[in-house]
Each structure stands twice: as C-alpha cells, then as structure tokens.
Amino acid sequence: MTITIYGAGAIGGITGARLAQAGHDVLLIDKAEDHVAAMNARGLTIEAREGSVTIPVRAGTPSALGQHLELVLLAVKSQDTPAALEILAPRLAPDGAIVSLQNGLNEEVIAAAIGERRTVGCLVNWAADWQAPGRILHGGEGALVLGELDGRRSERVQALAKLLDVVAPTRVSDNILGYTWAKHVYGALLVATAVVDAHVYEVVERSPAIQAMLISLVIENMDVAERAGVRLLAFDEYDPAEYRAAARGDTAARARAMASIATHYRAATKTKTGIWRDLAVRKRKTEVGALLGATVAKAKGYGLAMPLTERLIAMIADLESGRRQMSWANLDELVRAL
Hints:
alpha/beta, Rossmann fold, N-(1-d-carboxylethyl)-l-norvaline Dehydrogenase, domain 2, 2 domains, eight-stranded mixed beta sheet, four-stranded mixed beta sheet, 14 helices, 12 strands, globular
C-alpha cells in the first residue's frame, strides 16, 4: 500500500519521512515545487535538539497523484482543506481512508465530502516547523491519538495506530472528537500568544490579568464544544477541568493551568506557535480565520456570544494585513475587551 501524505510541510513532512524511514511506501505531495524538488534531490532533513537526520523520500506535486488512493494522511492548513478534498475525494478508493493530521474541526469537512466511514479522527500535539525547502524542525514531543468518529475500536484504527507509532507513541480513543475539540478550544489561547513577539511561556506568565483573559478566551470556546455535545478530554498541557475551576475564581487552578503550558513550552525546541511563524517569519495568511471562525459560526447557531474570540480574530487579520504590529499592547487590548 502506498501511503499518501497530502501536505508535506511541518507535520506532514516529518510523518512521511519517518514512515519512509521505517520502510513504508510513501508519496509526499506538496504544492510548493521548490520543497518537492529539494526533497527528491537531497531527501528531507529533520532537525531536532539531539541532532539532525536526512531521510530519502519520494515527493511530487498534486499532479503526481494517481487513482484508488488507499490511505491519505492530510496535513494542509485548515483553510486549504476544501480545495484538497476536491482533488482527493474522486481519487480515494471505495474502502480508502483520509486521516486528518490538522488543527481544527476538519473531520467534519472531510466526512461531509467522503463520508464518515472513510474519515479517521486524529489529535496531533507534537510540534514541528517548516524551515526551508527540504528542511523541517521537530519542535517537541506531544500526544498522538487516533479514533473512529463513531467511537468504534476498529481493526483499521488499531492498524493505523501501529503504523504511526514510528512517528510518535500513538494511542486509540473511543472519543477522538473529545481530543480534537480539546486541542481546538485550547488552541484559541495559543493564537492569542501570537499577537506579541514572545515565547508562549512568557505570555502565560506575564500577569494575572492576561492569565484571566486567556482563561476566559478558552472558556468561550469550551462552551461551544459542550453545547455541541462534545465531552472534552485532557491531553498534555491542557485539562478542561482546570479552566472551568479557574473561570469560577479558583486562582490556584488558574496558576496550575498556566504553569502546565509554561512547563510544556520550556521543554520544547519550538517555543512560539505556527501562527506566530506565519505572521512574523513567513509573512502569510494564518489559518486563524478558518479555525476560530468555524467556532464562531457554530456559536451563532447555538445563540452563544464569543466577543473575545471575535476580537482576537480581527486582531490577527490586522496583523496579517500589516495594519497592526506585534506588541504587548495587543494583549492589553484583549484584557480591556474582557
């Protein structure tokens, strides 16, 4: 079986390279022709704290895709999911599957295009950054969890977990949406850390006022998930119970929640978010509009207000367009909005 990695940037690139290194037949697909050319010519170099390794891989642009794809690991930005599915859906085998290695609520979009039966949910919380054509930084360890959307512990998902174990220790869950939604709602906090040129741990340790704002931001998003009937699960540096307690005024819970994030990011090589990198380094549009915008759209359907999240979305849009610069004043503005 050929494993197709669609989107060979940070997460997709490392995943594909590790699978190829383990002896699997892997095709890395990416629309960046210089990245594809570099991978084919020199392999994919993965840099990490303990050193770097270059792994021979086979890569191509979307035009290299064949038919009857059996397994696709989708790793494009959320805003690019619909366009990717236009290419992938007609090429997917009847018994094939797409696994979302993405941030956000992409499982819903994928299932709408190809059916729930051919969609596998996934939480990826290990970190990576695309550095240059053919070169990716492994940014830190984190959870990797798979699951069928209906909660079944199928043979397929067990086999996929065994397959991906060469990338990172992989678990199977009967509540994968509890994990993907958990990262999604906690991700709003990480987006907020990108409005200033600072490490994530510096932001969450900045002041009690900023910490209270970050808690409120996550709670806005948690409320939508719970209204949708999702039972949020704890992973790595995020525990929904701590945020609920902090929102009720438990300052010790707030301190624990922020300390967990600071500890996680101090141990990582990647200490700023991919959103920050898109804004400050790559100078390109982020996926914030697609990520948090999806939550806001759901909230409106439930009659829930998300004023802080909407203010953050607008702030990121200002940063993308150059109308605003990264500054601690941006976080102060969000505090005042709270």
